[in-house]
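Notes from the pairing session

We agreed to fold both candidates in a single pass and log them together. This is the raw record for the first candidate, unedited. Please don't reformat it; downstream parsing expects exactly this layout.

Candidate A
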Amino acid sequence: MKLSYAALLLSACAAGASAFSPATPPSSATTAVDRLVLNAEATAAPAKSSDESTTHKDPLLIRAALGQKTERPPVWMMRQAGRHMKVYRDLCKDYKTFRERSEIPDVAVEISLQPWRAYQTDGCILFSDILTPLPGMGVEFDIDEKVGPVVEPMRTWDSIKKMHLIDPSEAAPFVSQALRTLRDEVTPETAVLGFVGCPYTLATYLVEGKTSKEYLEIKKMAFCEPKLLHAILKNLAESIAEYALFQIESGAQLIQIFDSWAGHLSPRDYDTFAAPYQKMVLDAIKAKHPEVPTVVYIKHSGALVERMAGTGVDVVSLDWTVDMAEGRDRIAAGRAKAGLEGRGGVQGNLDPGVLFGSHETIKERAEEILKKAGPVGHVMNLGHGIEAATPEENAAFFIETVRNYRHDADE
C-alpha cells in the first residue's frame, strides 16, 4: 500500500512537472490546475504597490506580528486555501487525494495562491498538513477523505523505536520547492506563511491512531505511562524544530505552530505535556532566526491564554471564545509573569460562523474586534479555520472590510 502510494506520487510529480513547465503548450486535455495557471493573468491578482514595497522592508503582516504600528491591520484566514472555494473543488476532480494536492509542488502552490488572488489576503499560507513531516520521522500515515488522518497506533516502547530525527530536505523537498515558488509569485507586501503541528497535537494522532473526540488513549498514557509519552513528545519536538527551520530557510517569513488539541488538557497537564514542547520548537526558531515571528494557535484555549503567552511566542492566536480586549490584557499578563518584555502580539478572532451572516453583521463584528485589538501588534483572522460551506462572497467581504479599516478613524 505504501509503495503503491509512493509510486503514484512520483508518477504524479513527473506528470505535474511536465504539465506546469512554461515551455509546455496547452493540450486539449488540460487539468484543472493547467486551466487555472493558463488563465492566471486574467485572474484579479493583487497589484504590486510600489509605495509600500519601496518604503518597508518587511510585509505588513510581518511588521504587525513583530509589534510594529502599521498603516492598517493585516488580515488572512486560517484554512483560507481549500474546500470553501469552487476553484479548489474543481481542482480536486483531477487531484483526488489530499496528499497529491499537498505534495505535488505546483499543485500545492496553485492552491495556496487561490485565496490570495481572490481575496488579496496579506498572508499566503502554504497548503499542506501538520502530518506532512511524519514519514520523515519514521511514522507513515494516510489521509482518508472521509475519516481523516490514519496512523498505526504507537502505545509501547517498542513501537517508538522506529522514530528518528527528520531530514526535511529528504523527507519533504516538495515543501521547500512550494515555499520558494510562493515567494516568487506573491507581491513584496504579502507574507509567505509556514506552519507546523506541535508535539502534543501530533502525539494525539500517533497514540490514538486517528482523530478523536475524547483523546482517552493519550490521556491514559499520560497518567499511566508518562515517561513513554514524554519520549514521544521529545522525539517529535526535535524533528518539528528542524522542520520549522527548514521552512524558514525555504522562504517562510512567519511560522504558526498549531497545538489544536491541547485545549483538551487541564492547565496542569498543559504545563506538563504541551507547553514545554511548544517551547522547544519556539526556542529552536528564535536561536537561529530571531527575526522570524511566531504564532501559536490552540482551539478552545480560553483557559490557557496566559500560559500560551508565557512560552515566549510572539503572537497568540485567540479563538472566538475569548473577548479581544480581555485577551490582549491576559497575553500581557502571561508574558509579564514569565519575565518577557512587551505586551505581545495577538491574532484573530472572528467566529467563523459570523461569515454565514449578513454583510452588515460581518462588518459590525469585525470592526468591533479591530477596535478592541488596537493599532499595534494585531493580525486579523478568524478564531478557527474557515468553514467549508462559507459563501465566497462573504469571505471576500470580510477581507475587504478589514483592508479598508483604519484605526485613525477611532481617534
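Candidate B (folded immediately after A)
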Amino acid sequence: MSEFTEPIFERKLIDLRDSQKEIQSLSQYCVHHRLHCKGVVKVWYKNIKTTAVTRKLTAMYLANDVVQNSKKRGPEYAKEFGMVMRKVFEHLAVMDFDDKTIMSLVRLIGIWQERQIFEKKILHEISKIWDQKHKNSGAAKLTGQESESPKKRRESSGSGTERRKSREIAEIEDLLDAPMLTSDSNELNDETLTLSPRQGGSPGSGDPPEPEELIQALQDLENSASSDAIVREKIAKLPPEVSEVARIETLQSVPEAKVLHGQVEEASTLLDDYNLRLQEELKDRKKVGSMISEFLSAQRDLLAQAEERLELYLDKLDKIHGVKDELKSHIAALPDIPVLPASTGLAPLPSAGDLFTH
C-alpha cells in the first residue's frame, strides 16, 4: 500500500473513474491510512466542491464506502465525514442533477438513516436540506417511500446505450448494499470493542503498519545480502594477491600482470555488487526498524486505551456490586411475610364461585 500525502490522494481522486472496482480500491487505501482521516476528508471535501457535476455522485459513493468499511476499525471517518456532510449537502442541493442522480442520493441518505452511519442530528439535517431543496423536483421524499433498487432500475431501463449506462450505474450503486451483507448481521451479535491508535506523525509517518506487512518485511530480510552464503564464500576464497599491493613488485612479466589485473577486476566487481546490496539491505533494515517502532507505539497506545476502558468497567462493576449488596441488605431488613390464613385456624377465603352464588 503506497504512502499517504495530500497531493497523492488528490491525484487519486482526480483519476478516480466511475467503476465499482476503482471506488473499492481507493476506499481500501483510505481505510488503511485511517490515521490521516483528517487529511483524507479535507482533500475529499475540496474535491467534491470543485469537481464536475457528473462526478459528484462518485465522490459520495467513495465517502459511503470508506465510512462503512472503516466502522470495525474505529469511528474516525464517521466523525470526520459527519462534520462536513451538512455543508456537502448544502452544496449538492443547488446542483442541477438529473432525476437518476437525485434518486441515488435519496437512496444513499435512506441507507445512512437505516444503518445510523452518522449521528441522528447530522442525518436529520442532511435529510431536511435534501427534502426541502427537491420537494418540487419530482424526486421521492426521504420519508415514507422505498427507493428503487439498482436491479429493478436495470430491468426497467431501455436498450442500447441507455441500458449499458444503467448497468454501470447499478454496478456502482451495488456498493451501497454490499456493506449491509457483511456488517449489519455482525453488528447485531458482535459487541467486540474496537480501539484505534490516537498518536499521529511520530515516529516516521505515524501510520503503523498492519501485522501482515510487518511480518512480510521481516521475512524479506531473511533473503538479504548479509544472508547470502554463496557470495560470502566467493569473497572468502578470493586469492590474497588481489588485496596485496606488494604483489605488484614481484611481477616478472606482462602476462603475469594481465592475469593479476583480471583477478583484481573480477574481485572488484564482486565486491562492488555486494556492497550495493549491503547498502540496500541497510536501508531496508532502517525502514523495518521504523515500522517496528511505529507498530510498537501503536500497540502501546492501544494497550493504554484498553487499560483505561478496563478501569472504567471495573469501577462500574464495583458500583454494581455495591448496589447488589445494598439491595440484599434491604431485602434482609424487610419484615417476614405474614402467615397464610389457613395455617392460623381462620376460615379460608371464598372461591370465585362462592362470590357469585351468594
